Protein 1
Amino acid sequence: MATTDKASTRDRLLDTAAELFYREGVSLGVETLCRSAGVSKRSMYQLFAGKDEVLAASLARRLPEYGERLALGPQEEAGSPRERILHVFDRLEKASAEPAYLGCPYLAALVELKAPEHPASVVARGAKEWLLGFFRTQAEEGAARDPELLARQLMLVFDGASARAGAGIETLDGLTTTTVTALLDASGTR
């Protein structure tokens, strides 16, 4: 019974942390986090060394969903590398149209924290490296002239579009897919 209680307390804390840190930012206080999760500070400190560790764990917990939300499902993997890249940006455009969209949570954490050694920065950088690797692999498979450069350009479009849409200053409808199509054409990606 105690294991289940600990697991549910941990889950509740991480679910609440993911939502609040995304919506309110990483400067959110421990008291607010615990109160919102219905968890005592004592319980939080029994599960985690501190807020930094909660933030890192909440970001790490979202990684599979992040990958699934952006990348292709098994039935769609048969498409060309070009189609797989465009699919990511189509998903970004759709996500950015949702009222609760505030940008990429990993980019937001990196920008807010500014400390590369922070546990949450390490997780966030890992998420960004995963996406860069995905783009690089697709660029290589699609015979891009310079796969590394194309992957970096795609990250720039992705992060810039995420930030602008998350800040509410840009609507992405068709914008990123058009931009990425131009980059894919210029790089010779099939």
Protein 2
Amino acid sequence: MPDSASWQDHPARSLVRVQDEPPVWSFGELRLRRYRTADHGIVLALHREGLAQVGLRPGDGVYYDHDFFRMEDIYLRNDGEFLVGELDGRIVAMGGLRRADLVPGGRARAFGGYAPGAPALDAVEMVRLRVLPAVQRRGYGAAVVRALEERAKELGYRVLRADTTELQAPALALYRNFDWTETRRETIGGIVNIYLEKPLR
């Protein structure tokens, strides 16, 4: 799960864009860059570890990972982005942007729905925020959020959307620290899913 440490807790480090395309940032010793196909196994394992950390599991109606098997289609070739954070060459953080019209919401998304997006860019989802437990509370989750917000603006989106669960308190705190607003709640398989939004312009 992302760390909930405040961005201001790390005044000695700031997020610095060091390359425009493909995008690269530095945050102290952390390097953020675009996902590559060779990252797949590590990224999938980090995702699964993050969900297991809060007790989410396959079949609960909330857990899903089918998008990790279509990274290029869903993220990189369809007006989205997926970033990984490296520490000493090891992936320890990640997060993505995907068009909100690509994957259904609520319980339908656990079943692998996918559809091509409409031509107009409007809303984008910030998804898959994960930080390796051993390096949480260092501001890495906040760095990923900042970088993804920057990319969403560059891609021309009007609004950011996200959802998380009550079980994922650090993720919820991170969104709130960045001025996201809760829009609704939905109970899926006994788990409360929280939907949030943030305008970009």
Protein 3
Amino acid sequence: MPDHGTYQRLIGLLDSTATPYELIDHEPEGTTETVSALRGHSASEAAKCIILMVKVDRRVTRHVLAVVPGDRRVDLGAIRTLFAARYVGFCDAATAERLAHAVPGTVLPFSFDPGLELVADPDVVARPRLYFNAARLDRSLAVSGADYARLARPRVERIASGGSE
């Protein structure tokens, strides 16, 4: 697995801002439902991070990191409306890895790339504890939703569908 330095960048951000966090080591896993069970919490407490390609028109394509609760799906129609886009789809793995500076299954709910816009569902930032893989398959992190919102500064919009709404 390539080392993008993203894990160290995240830990540096948390430490430099004196943000309380918990590191959780576990078996290597990138699937939200499975890793949530390994960490000992419900999938609804996890941040599911999906990188999308948003075609605003024929010439303008944006990339969006959509963060929703782990037991929900990204509502592509809501993303399309939010960006007044013609098309919204899932990004290919190579582009996602380049923009997220992490391999699929380890994407953080943070954007460290100016070409990747961050949008989080309000139910993510409202979580007392938010769990996510820490740019590694074998280590996760937990922070409060409020601390996540303060550090990541996502655009907060209703973008989740399914699950408990």
